[in-house]
Amino acid sequence: MISIIICSRKADVLADFLDSVERTIGVPYEPVVIDNTDNKFNIFTAYNYGASLAKGDILLFAHEDIIMRSEGWGATMEQCMAEDPGIGMIGVVGTQCAAKAPRGWNTWGMQGRNIRPMCRLVQNMGDPKYSFEGEECFHMETVNPENVRITQAIGVDGLMFAIRRSLFDEGKVRFDEETYEGFHVYDMDMSMQVAQHMKVMVLLDIELKHISCGNRTKDYYTSYYQYYMKWKDRLPMGIYPLTDPASFNQFNALPYFRGMVKSGFFSKEEIRHYSRGYLATIADERKTRYYYALIYYTRFYHRFGVGRLVTGAYNLGRWLRERFRTK
Q1: How far apart are CA 204 and CA 206, in angstroms?
Q2: Residues 93, 209 contacting (CB under 8 angstroms)
Q3: pLDDT of res. 113
Q4: Residue 98 above 60 pLDDT?
Q5: Where are the domains of the chain?
C-alpha cells in the first residue's frame, strides 16, 4: 500500500489533490494529512511525524497544490519498486548531477552540455505569456533527453517523491530536523541520504500539474547553504563522469549568489559571510579570485539595475577564467 503524506495548509487545495489521487492512483492507498494551518510544523517535523503514522510499505511525500493527470500512476510506481529492489526513492522531477555548490535538484550542466532537470510537468510559470489547455500562465514542460520511462538520478524535487518504508524502519534515513528548519532543501537532503544506501530514480511516466509557481524566501538561500556545508565532501556527484568539475561547480554556484544579492533579503555583511564561507571550501586560489570577482560584480549589477551588465558579468567571468588558467 502507498501512504500519501501531505503537510496541508489549505483545505480546498488539499481536497482537489486528493480527488485527483482517488481518480487516478489505481491501487490501495491511505492519505496521511498533517494539518499545518496553524504553522506548528516545518516540513521536516511534519514529514517525520507523517512517516511515523503511515502504514504503507511505500511512503509518498507530496505537495498539496498538485493535480495528478496520469491514470494508474500508483501501480506504475509500485511496479518499479517491485522490479528493482535496489530502488530506494522515486521522484517525478530530478537531476542526474549535483554541483559542489549551494544548488539543489535544478542543477544544470554536465558532460559539456546543458542538461535541464528531467520532468513531465504542467507548471504554473507565473507569467501570462504562457498558456496550456486554455489556462493562462501554465506551460507543459517535458524534459526526457534519454527518452526513457525511468532513469537514475542524484536528486529529486520535493513536489512528489516516494521512499521505501524500510529505509525509515532501519534508521537509514530521516528528515533532518537538527540541521534545517523551514520548507526548503528537504528533497535534496533526503535524496543524498537515500543515495548512500540505494538508488534514486526519476519516473517520467507520471504526468502532473503544479498549481503554484513557488517563491524563494530568505530561508531558501540559507537552507541551501546549510545543505552545501553538510554534503560538500561528497560533492560534486554525477550519474556520468563530470568532464570539467571546476567549471561545473562555478556554473552552478554563481546563480546562487546572484539570487542571494538580487533577493534583497541579505545585508552586505551577510552576503560577505556566506560567500567567504563557501569560498573557504574552494582550494584553488585562482578559482577563489574568480568567484569573488563575479559575486561582487553581481552586487554592482543589482545596485545599479543596468541590464547590459548581465552580459558584462558573463564576459568578465570568461576573461578572468582564461587569465587565471594561464597563470
Answers
A1: 5
A2: no
A3: 47
A4: yes
A5: 2-224, 225-325
Phi/psi region, residue 77 (left: phi>0; alpha: psi -120 to 50; beta: rest), is alpha
The reported pTM is 0.86
Q: Which regions of the chain does DSSP assign to beta strands (E)? A: 2-8, 29-35, 58-62, 66-68, 87-91, 94-95, 97-98, 119-124, 131-132, 135-136, 138-143, 150-153, 155-156, 160-164, 199-203, 208-210, 237-238
Strand, helix or coil for residue 49: helix
Task: Tell me the C-alpha distance between 251 and 234, whole Å.
Answer: 18
Query: Does 2.60.200.30 match the CATH number of domain 2-224?
Result: no
Contact (Cβ atoms closer than 8 angstroms) between residue 24 and residue 69: yes
Distances (CA, A) of 1 to 7, 86, 249: 20, 19, 40
Q: Give the other-Cβ count within 10 Å of 227's Cβ.
A: 25
- 119 closest CA partner among 95, 97, 152, 136: 95
Closest CA to 139 of 63, 213, 65: 213
Residue reference for cell 506548528: 40
Residue 213 in grid coordinates = 509557481
- Higher-confidence residue of 295 and 46: namely 46
Cβ contacts of 90 within 8 Å, gap of 6 or more? 77, 80, 81, 150, 156, 161, 162, 200, 201, 202, 203
CB 45 within 8 A of CB 177: yes
pLDDT of residue 99: 86
Tally of residues, the chain? 327
Residue carrying the nine cell digits 559575486: 295
pLDDT of 272-319, one tens digit each?
A: 788 878 877 876 655 556 566 666 655 555 555 544 555 566 566 666
What percent of the chain shows pLDDT beyond 70? 80
Lowest mean pLDDT segment, chosen from 6-10, 77-81, 113-117: 113-117
